[in-house]
């Protein structure tokens, strides 16, 4: 059996429910993944805690992390930087634990290049109308920005071929069930491949 963890990347268009589904994944008592806390230059929202929700950084601090190669990936999103700390991810995978990233699509593309063996899951809205309803319902975006988000989402949905799985986020708990089933199947698959390899060596 492989002793390395699996890198799970959950991505998808803005407003599809990535944050909501990720929180639901980790609120299950049997959640077995380690969540990689991202770095961001966005200001903390009410109730957010540094080192729990994000590591909150200044623009200068973040740019230094980029220069020093401390980020596995990073992207700019609505005027702020977001990025994944590379050391945490590598050390946790080496320790045999699965790491869960919830990131936007530009970042997911960068991770695919560096970790082609990762498990890439695209969260899909049930429809574009429902996506618009969710973005409007969240109430964080102006009318202009909503239009931009919808245009961006349309393009992102066309680029799903780099993902291993597409999960439709119709119902949050159902999406969590599907993600858990995908990860479990991935563990069985890698075990089967390794068992087959050992079998082959033993026959020789
Ligand atoms: N590329 C990248 N995106 C991230 C990272 N952390 C969070 N994000 C994404 O950044 C976007 C904005 O997150 P946030 O400011 O918390 O607002 P939200 O829209 O309420 O989730 C979401 O799409 C997250 O998935 C990261 O480390 N890297
Ligand atoms: N399955 C779902 N059904 C209905 N509403 C949802 C569902 N998943 C998320 N939402 C809602 O959609 C909005 C956007 O979700 P959010 O998690 O902020 O998206 P993202 O992190 O992808 O930008 C939120 O108001 C959230 O409550």
Automatic annotation (TrEMBL):
The keyword Transferase applies. Pfam families: Guanylate_kin. The keyword ATP-binding applies. Keywords: ATP-binding, Cytoplasm, Kinase, Nucleotide-binding, Transferase. Its EC number is 2.7.4.8. Transmembrane segments: none annotated. InterPro entries: GK/Ca_channel_bsu (IPR008145), Guanylate_kin-like_dom (IPR008144), Guanylate_kinase (IPR017665), Guanylate_kinase_CS (IPR020590), P-loop_NTPase (IPR027417). Residues 5-184 form the Guanylate kinase-like domain. It comes from the Bacteria. Coiled coil: none annotated. It is found in: Cytoplasm. ATP binds at residues 12-19. It catalyses: GMP + ATP = GDP + ADP. Gene3D superfamilies: Guanylate Kinase phosphate binding domain, P-loop containing nucleotide triphosphate hydrolases. PROSITE patterns: GUANYLATE_KINASE_1, GUANYLATE_KINASE_2. GO terms for molecular function: kinase activity. Belongs to the guanylate kinase family. PANTHER family: GUANYLATE KINASE, GUANYLATE KINASE-RELATED. Essential for recycling GMP and indirectly, cGMP. HAMAP family: Guanylate_kinase (MF_00328). This is Guanylate kinase.
């Amino acid at each position: 059996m492989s002793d390395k963890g699996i890198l799970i990347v959950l991505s998808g268009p803005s407003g599809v429910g990535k944050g909501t589904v990720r929180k639901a994944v980790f609120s299950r008592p049997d959640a077995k993944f380690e969540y990689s806390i991202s770095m961001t230059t966005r200001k903390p929202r009410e109730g957010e805690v540094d080192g729990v929700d994000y590591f909150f950084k200044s623009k200068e601090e973040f740019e230094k992390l980029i220069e020093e190669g401390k980020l596995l990936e990073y992207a700019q999103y609505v005027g702020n930087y977001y990025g994944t700390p590379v050391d945490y991810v590598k050390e946790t995978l080496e320790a045999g634990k699965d790491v869960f990233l919830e990131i936007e699509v530009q970042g997911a593309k960068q991770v695919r290049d560096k970790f082609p063996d990762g498990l890439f899951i695209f969260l899909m809205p049930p429809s574009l109308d429902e996506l618009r309803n969710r973005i409007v319902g969240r109430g964080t975006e102006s009318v202009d920005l909503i239009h931009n988000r919808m245009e961006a989402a349309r393009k992102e949905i066309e680029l799903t071929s780099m993902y291993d799985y597409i999960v439709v986020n119709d119902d949050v708990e159902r999406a969590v069930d599907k993600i858990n089933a995908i990860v479990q199947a991935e563990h069985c698959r890698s075990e089967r491949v390794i068992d087959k390899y050992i079998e082959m060596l033993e026959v020789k």
